[in-house]
Amino acid sequence: MRVLFANNWIRIAIGVFFALISVSLFAIAMCRGLNRDEHQFIAAGTLLARQGLLPYRDYAYFHFPNLVFVYAGLFRCSKHLLLSSRLFSVLCSLALLVIIYRFSSSRLEQLHKRARLAVAGAITVCAFSNPIFRFTCWRAWNHPLPVLLTVLGCLCHFDNLARNSMARLVWTGALIGFAAGSRLTFAPAALAFLAVIFCSEMGPRGLRRAGWFSLGLMLGLLPAIVLFLMCPNQFVFGNFGYNAKLYPMLCRIGGLEHEMSPFFKLRYFLTNILAQPGNAALILGLGYFLVRSGAWRWARDPGSWLLPLLSGTLFLGALVAAIPLPQYFYAPVPLAVIGLAISIAKTAPMLRKDYCVLFIVTMVCIASTAVDYRYLGRLFQPEAWATIKVHRAGRRLASLTGQGKVLTLSPIFPLEGGLRIYPELTAEPFACRSASFLRTSARVKYKMLAIRDFPRLLIKEPAQGILVSSDSVLDQSLAVFATTHGYQKFPVVGEISVYLPPTRIAASR
Asked: How many CB atoms lie within 10 A of CB 24?
């Protein structure tokens, strides 16, 4: 045993390191409560997996569609929708951390094995313990996948600087294209790549290289392109019209108009994002090692422009959103960590003060998110997991309603129970709120429903249940609507209730 450990201690240490990270991410993902933004992504994937319904064509959808196809594949294999989608996000984030570690370790060849292991591990911990990473990485959102793909594309480009392979340019473009096809705010990343590719080799050769990259970009965007060609008006409305007009109107009604100004967004970034100790430590550490490595000397190479250009475009993408939210600033975080790894690798020789700075940065990052380790205590209590609770609520709902459609602004619950929803309410809790601003003809055109459309809808397709939570005023309106039309309230779980029609109540008796 001693001989085995002596010969393989590095591999064992790395395995234990990532096992602890994996367990921590899994515990957080399983135990943290449901977020309202998760409904739309899970519902869209479920409708495609079970009924073959497509975004834009069959219902309104307010994001680029690639993640819908990924989730549909997952949900063909699992009935635990929230659990499997969050597990996918965890795997994306874990893969991102492994890539950061491998990249860091490969760049630190000047260090002794033990020092290389420690420094690469510290850099990885800076990413794993970053507050924005920890807030975003495990949720069933359209952030973890495009961030992973963007980092892969970035490292693929770095590798191609030495190989100069056209095939790798296509591969890089496909990664960035699929990332942009999963979330629109990643589209400006393609401009950063094109600028660097063209500036690295001016003239016809640079144009050819940009062309190969663009070919891969189109391949990654192929699902979005196909859906655009199928229903261009609905596609443009869902991705541009809604975000440019309807969502800002919702924000104004919610009293968030002052949060939409560029000044407020920048102030929010400085006071709510950069002021967090883990984020500030990462940026200060990056700045320190940029100075120590003499970044101004190697910055003259156009190949080194990619990271700052990519970070800048993704940061601007975060500011484009109607109101700032923490997850919008997630994309530049792994790029900052990669920049930290490159700067440390170019800091030669590494002095004691350099190790001390890296140690302090790492400890601050760990302390800034240490509260999340409380979820490890629930790891062996599956009944306490939020993912299991949501699935059980869905099964409970199915037992109360039987077969048929459920009218709700929280579509995860009926879908977890194997029930059907009204496709027009897939993109909740946003579609119904936004529909009230549209005329009847526009709602029909864009496959959306407002509260005032429900009576006509239920005459055509009666609901076997009306599911209501206490999350919003709109849910309260839905409860009033159900009571007015003779539905009777039954508890499902917590503050979630279902209103059953008289025919269902009579049948259950």
From this structure: 21
C-alpha torsion 298→301→305→307, nearest 10: -50
Residue entry with tokens 């929803």: 421
Q: What is the mean pLDDT of residues 194-205?
A: 82
Burial of 37 (0-12, 13-18, 19+ CB in 10 A): middle
* Long-range contacts of the stretch 3-11 (C-beta < 8 A, 24+): 10/113, 10/117
For 407-451, the pLDDT digits (tens) are 999 999 999 999 999 999 999 888 998 998 999 999 999 999 998
Q: How far apart are CA 192 and CA 199, in angstroms?
A: 11
Report the pLDDT value the prediction gives residue 302, as an integer from 0 to 100. 66
Strand partners, 408: 467
Residue of 209, 169, 166, 155 whose CA lies nearest to 177: 169
> Tokens 């302390």 correspond to what residue?
367
Q: Are 40 and 426 in contact (CB under 8 A)?
A: yes
pLDDT for the residue 409: 92
Q: What is the gyration radius of the CA atoms in the chain, in angstroms?
A: 25
| Chain centre to alpha carbon of residue 150 | 13
* Mean pLDDT, all residues of the chain: 90
pLDDT tens per residue, range 315-361: 998 888 888 899 999 999 999 999 999 999 999 888 999 999 999 99
Determine the Cα–Cα distance for residues 45 and 62; give it in Å rounded to an integer: 14
CB 120 within 8 A of CB 362: no
Tracing tokens 């009218």 back to the chain, one arrives at: 407
| Burial label, 433 (beta-carbon count in 10 A; 0-12, 13-18, 19+) | buried
